[in-house]
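Thread: Newbie trying to understand structure tokens

Hi all, I'm a second-year student working on a class project, and my supervisor (Dr. K.) asked me to get a predicted structure for one chain before our next meeting. I've only ever worked with sequences, so writing a 3D structure as a token string is new to me. If someone could post the tokens and maybe explain what I'm looking at, I'd be very grateful. Here's the chain:
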Amino acid sequence: MVRLALAFVLLLTEAAEAAPRITAAHIVSRVGKQGVADDSAKRALARDGVRLFAVLEAVDRGATVYFSDAGTFVLDKETHSARPLSQAPPATLFWFRVEPAVEWLSNTETGSFHYEPIRYAETGMVADLGKGSLAADVRPTLTPDRGRGVGTMRYKLVAVTEDGAFATPGADARRGKGSGGLAERVHRVSLRSDDTYLGYLTELYGQPYIWASAGPSKSAHQSERLEGADCADFVVYGQRRMGKDLAYTWTGDLPRVTRLVGSGRAGKDGVYVDERGRPVPFTRAGDLLLFPRHVGVLSRDRGVRGVLDHEDTMVHAYFATPREQALGETDYASAPVEVRRWR
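---
Reply by user tm_fold:
Sure, no problem. This is what the structure looks like when written as tokens:
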């Protein structure tokens, strides 16, 4: 009887040792419904969307195996085939947004330049509890949702198992002294409205205004990393996404890379007039509106058709996450303006 009991215990022990054991969690994603998911940052049209997949890494009889509903996927530049997530050891999956908790900050707050750390928070995605895959939702919850389905968001996954909790990088995964933002290994998704200049600007929605945003190079700029931008860097970002090799700069340098197509100041009726009293025309969406030490991008002709007035809108970053705003509602409603077009 004792031998039988010992044999039974031995069988249970061997079975437990033979069962896969989770050792790590990962996030991969893909654009649209086709293609192979991977762990790279994604930029996509909002209509195509991005789908996130949980990947559970495990050890099974000494070998590394993966469980995911992504099927074949790429992790750290290596292609893997996953077993269905339903075959994984028991785990509860928790998804989090890793999102900015502030609308603006300054890299010169102390009087000298430094990369001010951007404050991030991890907010639970309660509706997605336990899901192995989900559509990436880039709408912020800690700052105003001005993009309504477009913008940038980062994500974290936590898998809670019998052996402990396994998490992907989150708000504590900092880049270091080269930036105030997060490391690239925090999974990032950017959705844009369309492939126009204004459309590319929507990728920065949800990210903070950073006074004196900067970077060690054009490609490593805070705007390029979708961490945030000041007003001038915001408008340059869209041009760079259009393929223009422009350097990030400040408002005073923008006349060098643009040409003047109109100028004036708003009258009491809200219509902008030039020095001769003639209405300034609404030129076209995508032209710059350059004010003293501020800049925005003309977006919609909403007032008197064909004329620039306070009801027309611009997209800009001004001590808040980027937004589209009527000219008359901004702090620059009474300021002189130059309408400029990229060269």
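A couple of things are worth pointing out once you decode it. Residues 252-342 form one domain. The chain has two domains: 2-191, 252-342. Feel free to ask follow-ups in this thread.
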